[in-house]
UniProtKB/TrEMBL annotation:
It holds the Pfam family Polbeta. Residues 14-99 form the Polymerase beta nucleotidyltransferase domain. It comes from Candidatus Desantisbacteria bacterium CG_4_10_14_0_8_um_filter_48_22. This is Polymerase beta nucleotidyltransferase domain-containing protein. InterPro entries: NT_sf (IPR043519), Polbeta (IPR041633), TA_antitoxin_MntA (IPR052930).
């Protein structure tokens, strides 16, 4: 995915208007695994957590104008959970912002996920135990959970 000419100018104006630190593309449009209904995944980073639902809507509308013909799926990095940060960090494409800020985001995303991994393992174990328990109950009874 490349942005050129007028699109690049519009993206820069949008970034300045909303005081964005970073704009990145990620997902199928970046890795080339698209299909006819593929959307465009865009991640944005505000310099602070200072944004409102109204600002979200206005920014999304501006991005639709920058990328006509795409269904834009926008993620606010300031509010993204560790799993989403990991997914974005797998193949981000910097569209706007400083390389240093981009590199700092990538390190931050990696660290957030690594810090969260033990909790994911615990969650997986709990779910596995619950599924095993439910299977055993189903095999022992009529398939209805006993209260």
């Amino acid at each position: 995915m490349k942005i050129m000419g007028l699109q690049k100018v519009k993206l820069g104006k949008t970034a300045k208007k909303f005081r964005l630190k970073l704009i990145m593309a990620f997902g199928s449009q970046v890795n080339g695994k698209t299909h006819p209904k593929s959307d465009l995944d865009i991640a944005v980073l505000f310099p602070s957590g200072d944004f409102t639902f109204k600002k979200y809507g206005e920014l999304h509308s501006s991005l639709l104008d920058v990328f006509p013909g795409y269904e834009v799926d926008m993620v606010i990095l300031n509010r993204a959970d560790p799993l989403l940060l990991k997914k974005i960090n797998e193949n981000p494409l910097l569209l706007f912002g400083e390389k240093r800020d981009f590199d700092e985001f990538r390190i931050y995303a990696f660290n957030r996920y690594e810090d969260y991994r033990p909790y994911l393992a615990m969650e997986e174990k709990i779910v596995d135990n619950l599924v095993t328990e439910m299977r055993n109950e189903y095999r022992q009874g009529s398939g209805k959970k006993k209260v």
